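User: New here, please read:
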Amino acid sequence: MPAVTYELIKQCPVTGARAGKLHTPHGTFDTPMFMPVGTQGTVKTLSPEELKKMGAGVILGNTYHLFLRPGHDIVKKAGGLHRFMNWDGGILTDSGGFQVFSLGDLRKISEEGVSFRSHLDGSKQFLSPEKAMEIQMDLGADVAMAFDECTPYPADYEYACASMRLTSRWARRCQAAHDRPDQALFGIVQGGMYKDLRRESAETLVEMDFPGYAIGGLSVGEPKPMMYDLLEHTTPFLPKDKARYLMGVGTPDCLVEGVARGVDMFDCVFPTRVARNGTGLTSRGRIVIRNASYAEDFGPLDPECDCYTCQNYSRAYLRHLIRCDEIFGLRLMSLHNLHYLIGLMRRIRASIIEDRFAQFQQNFWLDFAE
């Protein structure tokens, strides 16, 4: 048996939305799920205890950043990432492919891997499929990701095709190098914005029999309707009995629409990043708390929310903290935004199990505002 398995509990007959369970060495977690991002071994400003209390099950660590500092060797000596950061739930580490992609002119891609300069000190570094596996096995996450090239948007057909096939070859090398039995390795579907390439990528990876599959290279600048169309095309080529993970997507509307197209797992820095800029995610859309209209608003950020922030602090106070760049304000906004998204996923799951997801989706769009 693989270290991580997926159990399908219920599927919406109208949309294909799935409710399931992800079984890992560090617990079983309900899906669909949103996974908070702990890039450098921490979800910014929040403690593991706060994350657990709001219902987070799996969180992310980042191979690229942890490789550069403190170094995967140090994390290994600490007993792995779970012990190092005091988190006893699930952990997924991405391969570093997206971060290297984001370096632009600071990196050079070859068949062997990617040469790049550290964004920290400019030092020369190299990541290959084998190195990405070495790092992730040392980190000891429940789920490791295959090393891939994230195809940019826009990209012409020839580039997207070559990039996707490189990712497939790298996936085989990752499989050959990965030998940690208590860790699952997921493959990543690429192919740019081309449906035939997405199908080829999915079918190639399915033949390799990974225990789970991610869909990468979306939410990289393309219009949302294009992303939804490509998702709708791609997920039918992935096994029904294995987890599906849409990488780097975390706005409420994309979560609802991603679930509607059969996705089980999501992650994104979005909720904590916008929180630090003073934006709250609420049941009635986004609130930019810096706006002067909230200066004397003594009600909660979201009247329908039961998080610590909304139960104890007003919009006026949050506005004051954010305008003064107080760390407590960043914490309160981050806590609320993650609580909101995790709660949204919980409500989505309940609607699937109770055979009312299609109605939930319709009602969401009636209430949702950017």
